[in-house]
User: Which sequence fits this backbone?
């Protein structure tokens, strides 16, 4: 009981010791974005799809000729920018999270197999990884989206299937390090199966690095989705995304800057928040600060 209490206190101390201002800002911002996305139907002040030609390009509320009914103004079709911004976050966050789940599952599985089993399987997987890394991910996704019918499901699948290589490389490197540890060698000597060793000893020790790159990967996936939607190859109307809002407002930057500026700010803040959160998790989950070294799950 006393040991458990001391461990809890040590974990709490480590949590606050590594909670940097940027990490805290990232954590709070991601939480707020998630809350807004989940409760968007009950939060938005207006129907984000409603077109009103009489309310076209109204400035934000604090500007001259602005309206308190539209805090961030309206777009070229009279739709409320704030409402569309909140709804756009739902799609962007959904695409980012689900595509990372797909990429993470593939990358984690192949990384574990490549690093632990080695041999010809390792060589084959890593050669394919090197070939994939030679081509920019955004270019691969763009080519695939041009060839296929644009939709949310297609976009998620394509991003997931083209971004797993980073996870594979990181996980493989962690596995190569962990499998040389004494507790893994001891399990091998005692005749433990490969499945048992991977599940009980290898996987728990690579999850920290995996969680870090997955967190940052969500921001990257959101940026990829926004870029494709801006170019017209991503999520298609009437679905709302921040990239699509940027595309809608690009022709009005000189006269109605708010149409494109606010979704641009939303993309920037979200991507940076996931990056800051990932950096904080990297420090928090660093094995050097967990039980004085790599976790030994006996």
Assistant:
């Amino acid at each position: 009981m006393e040991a458990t209490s001391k461990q809890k206190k040590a974990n709490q101390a480590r949590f606050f010791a590594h909670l940097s201002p940027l990490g805290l800002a990232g954590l709070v911002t991601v939480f707020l974005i998630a809350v807004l996305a989940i409760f968007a139907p009950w939060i938005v002040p207006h129907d984000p799809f409603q077109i009103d030609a009489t309310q076209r390009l109204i400035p934000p509320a604090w500007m001259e000729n602005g309206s308190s009914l539209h805090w961030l103004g309206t777009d070229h079709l009279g739709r409320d920018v704030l409402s569309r911004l909140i709804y756009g976050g739902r799609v962007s966050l959904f695409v980012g999270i689900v595509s990372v789940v797909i990429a993470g599952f593939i990358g984690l599985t192949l990384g574990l197999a490549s690093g632990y089993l080695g041999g010809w399987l390792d060589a084959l997987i890593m050669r394919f990884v090197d070939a994939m890394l030679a081509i920019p991910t955004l270019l691969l996704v763009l080519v695939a989206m041009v060839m296929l019918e644009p939709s949310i499901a297609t976009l998620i699948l394509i991003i997931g299937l083209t971004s797993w290589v980073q996870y594979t490389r990181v996980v493989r490197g962690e596995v190569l390090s962990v499998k040389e540890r004494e507790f893994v060698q001891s399990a091998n000597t005692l005749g433990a199966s490969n499945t048992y060793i991977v599940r009980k000893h290898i996987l728990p020790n690579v999850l920290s690095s995996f969680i870090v790159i997955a967190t940052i990967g969500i921001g990257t996936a959101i940026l990829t989705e926004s870029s494709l939607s801006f170019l017209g190859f991503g999520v298609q109307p009437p679905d709302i995304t921040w990239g699509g809002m940027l595309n809608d407002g690009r022709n009005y930057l000189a006269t109605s800057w708010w149409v494109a500026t606010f979704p641009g700010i939303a993309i920037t803040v979200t991507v940076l928040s996931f990056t800051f959160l990932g950096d904080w998790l990297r420090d928090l989950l660093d094995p050097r600060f967990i039980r004085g070294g790599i976790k030994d799950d006996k």
About this structure: Residues 290-298 have pLDDT under 50 and may be disordered. The domain at 59-289 is CATH 1.10.3720.10 (MetI-like fold).
